[in-house]
Write a structure and sequence with these properties.
about 210 residues; about 20% strand; single chain; Rossmann fold; Arc Repressor Mutant, subunit A; alpha/beta; 2 domains
Length: about 210
C-alpha cells in the first residue's frame, strides 16, 4: 500500500503516463526513457523520474523502462487491475451521454447503474441499463457494493444526493454539478469537473 500523502498533482499525472505508454505499446515500442516520455508529454524527464520514484524503482539508469512492465506497475498503483463498477446519478443529457460512452470499459470502469427522480425516465432503457428510481439509491448501491459514482444532477440537489451516496458506501464521487460538495474527506474522494471554470481559466491566455 502506498502512502496517501503523495501530492494529488503527482497522482493526477499517472493516468496521463499510463495512457501515453499504452499508445506507445500499440505503436510497437517496447522500451522507453523518461526523456522520450517527457518529450511526448511536454514534461521534463526529471519530473517523470521524481513522480515514479514516489512508488519505488522502475527500470535501470541508462537502460530505460520496459513499457509493458511500467504499464502493469502503473495499473497496480492506480488500482486498475480489475474493472470497477460505477453508478451514474442523473439521467439528463450529460448522464445519458456518460452512461453510453464506450471507452469506460476499456479503461477499467463499467457503468452498471443509472438513477433519476423523473417519473417519465424511471424504468426506461439506456442501452443495456434501466434507469432506476433514485429514491432507492442507497439500498441498491449498497447491495451492489459500488464504490464509485458519477454525479450529473443539478447543483440544487447535488449535496443531498452526495450525502446519500456516502450512506450507500460510495468512496469516490466524480461530480459534474457546479457546486462544492461538503463531505467527510477522510472517507470519500471527491473530484469536481466544471467545464465553465476550465474555459474561464483558458480565456486568461487569449488575446
Amino acid at each position: 500500500m502506498y502512502s496517501k500523502n503523495i501530492p494529488k498533482i503527482i497522482i493526477a499525472r499517472l493516468p496521463i503516463y499510463l495512457e501515453t505508454l499504452e499508445m506507445m505499446h500499440k505503436e510497437g515500442i517496447r522500451k522507453t526513457s523518461s526523456k522520450e516520455l517527457g518529450n511526448r508529454l511536454g514534461i521534463t524527464a526529471a519530473q517523470i523520474r521524481k513522480d515514479l520514484s514516489q512508488f519505488g524503482e522502475f527500470g535501470k539508469q541508462g537502460t530505460g523502462y520496459p513499457i509493458d512492465t511500467l504499464i502493469c506497475e502503473l495499473k497496480g498503483i492506480l488500482n486498475l487491475n480489475h474493472v470497477w463498477d460505477v453508478a451514474v446519478i442523473g439521467a439528463g443529457r450529460l448522464g445519458l451521454a456518460i452512461a453510453q460512452y464506450p471507452e469506460f470499459i476499456h479503461r477499467g470502469f463499467h457503468i452498471t447503474l443509472i438513477f433519476d427522480n423523473d417519473p417519465e425516465l424511471i424504468n426506461t432503457r439506456v442501452g443495456d441499463l434501466t434507469i432506476q428510481d433514485s429514491t432507492h439509491l442507497v439500498e441498491i448501491i449498497k447491495k451492489s457494493n459500488i464504490k464509485i459514482a458519477m454525479l450529473t444532477v443539478p447543483a440544487s440537489s447535488a449535496q443531498k444526493v452526495a450525502e446519500e451516496l456516502v450512506k450507500a458506501g460510495v468512496q469516490a464521487i466524480l461530480s459534474y454539478a457546479p457546486v462544492t460538495l461538503n463531505l467527510p474527506t477522510d472517507s470519500v474522494q471527491v473530484l469536481h469537473i466544471d467545464p465553465v471554470k476550465q474555459l474561464q481559466q483558458m480565456t486568461f491566455f487569449l488575446d
